[in-house]
Amino acid sequence: MADFQGKQMIEISGLTKRYGSHTVLDNINFAVDSGSIAAIVGRSGAGKSTLFRCVNLLERPTSGTVRVDGQELTHLSRRELRTARRAIGTVFQSANLLRRLTAAQNVALPLRFLGLSDEEVHQRVRELLERVGLLHRANHYPAQLSGGQRQRVGIARGLATRPSVLLSDEATSGLDPETTRSILRLLTELRDDLGVTIVVITHEMDVVRSVADVVAHLDRGRIVESGRVGEVVRRSDSPLATSLLPTDPAPAPLAGEVVWQLRYTDAIVDPNWLTRVSRELDTDIALLSGLVETVGGDHAGRLTVRMSGRLSPATVAGAFAAYGIHAQVASAADELAVAS
Length: 340
Ligand SMILES: Nc1ncnc2c1ncn2[C@@H]1O[C@H](COP(=O)(O)OP(=O)(O)OP(=O)(O)O)[C@@H](O)[C@H]1O
Ligand SMILES: [Mg+2]
Description:
- By secondary structure, this protein is of the alpha/beta class.
- The protein contains 11 helices and 14 strands.
- The termini are far apart.
């Protein structure tokens, strides 16, 4: 994988898309490194699917450029576009399989136009179905497959032309968590084994946390935040960061106590921090709620704790900061509870 890294496979610059006077995408700038998985998140109507269609050029941007593997796509003729699109595989929510064709025939569809012999098509389809773990279902029709299996066939079809980029619009929506996990594992394998650059559009934050290298938050047609997933979670309490690593709302503290909101700011945090800070400040720390995860190989944590109000906020914040944890008062029982 190392040799893929660093090169930008997808470069979107100044991309704007209007329908009449309605601006759906407003000056989007976003790049995806070769061999990485990018997630695009945002509420319904934010413009995610429109961005998707602009990247695979099913839709012409109003202005701006889209480069895939160094090739600028917005100015290509129809004919050139057809060839260029082979470098981009797509997978949709319902997999969009043709009902009258078997799994194998569905996967073979994009290969029909490549001038391969029947034997070559047959061989390639076998490889693809094997890749997604469905060789034993080759002759089944979509209605005879489960949702997750249909999605795998859709992925195999998306990979048929050996694309360097795979785009997925809500490919795991509507699947149960276990099936979702197996599809995500498949996507990760495709990145690792084939070096495919993958863009997933999703509203499921679990999906982002478990597979994405980078994430972009699209809000009303603009990218309001983006970055490596672990960095986004560590650097702030932005809406994107908190939805990636949510915590329960802080409860009201008891008299004389203070509720603190903690966020890991370092990529590696001493797992013994709670005992250590407790000992250093000579006070109890009640853990109320929280989530600690490994995101992209790094630690990410967001927790709520309750401590005595005797201690000065600066002392408490300083003690946590020494362990790479940002601490801020969530709420105080009363003014006096926060000694200064
Ligand atoms: N062909 C079109 N003509 C006019 N407006 C459109 C067209 N396609 C999309 N829009 C508008 O663009 C906006 C963004 O739509 P889009 O489908 O990209 O949202 P989305 O983020 O994918 O939402 P969802 O999460 O619900 O799929 C919406 O307001 C939609 O009505
Ligand atoms: Mg959509």
